[in-house]
Design a protein that fits this description.
This protein is of the alpha+beta class. The protein has a single domain, classed as Alpha-Beta Plaits. It has three helices and four strands, in the order βαββαβα.
C-alpha cells in the first residue's frame, strides 16, 4: 500500500469497462470525451477475459477502456456508457483514485466548460 506522508491529495473517479472490438472502444471513447463526460479515455488490449455467462464458462478477447471523470459527472457518465455499450450486461467498475492537483484541476475545468 502506498501511503502519502500526511498530505491530502485530490481525487478523481476512474472507471473501467471492456468491449469486444477496438472500433467500439474508440467510438465510446470519442463520444464520452466529446460529450465532456470524461476528460480522458485510454484503450488497452486486447486482453483475454474469462467469465461465466448464461451457464457457461466463456473466454473472449476484449479491449479495456480506462475512463477518467469527476464525482459530479459519474451518474451521467454511467448512464451514457450503459446506452453506448454493446453488451447486454456491461461490466462498469469505478473507484476514486488520488491525483495531482494540476490534473484534477484540468479535469474539472474541461468537464465544466462548454464544447466548441
Amino acid at each position: 500500500m502506498i501511503e502519502a506522508e500526511s498530505k491530502s491529495y485530490p481525487t478523481i473517479v476512474q472507471l473501467v469497462t471492456t468491449v469486444d472490438t477496438r472500433e467500439a472502444a474508440e467510438s465510446i471513447a470519442h463520444d464520452l470525451v466529446a460529450g465532456r463526460l470524461a476528460g480522458c479515455v485510454q484503450i488497452g488490449g486486447p486482453v483475454c477475459s474469462t467469465y461465466s455467462w448464461q451457464g457457461s464458462i466463456e473466454q473472449s478477447m476484449e479491449f479495456r477502456l480506462t475512463i477518467k471523470t469527476t464525482k459530479k459527472m459519474l451518474d451521467r457518465l454511467v448512464e451514457k456508457l450503459t446506452l453506448l455499450h454493446p453488451y447486454e450486461t456491461p461490466e462498469i467498475l469505478w473507484s476514486e483514485v488520488s491525483s495531482t492537483e494540476s490534473y484534477c484541476q484540468w479535469l474539472k475545468e474541461y468537464l465544466s466548460s462548454q464544447s466548441n
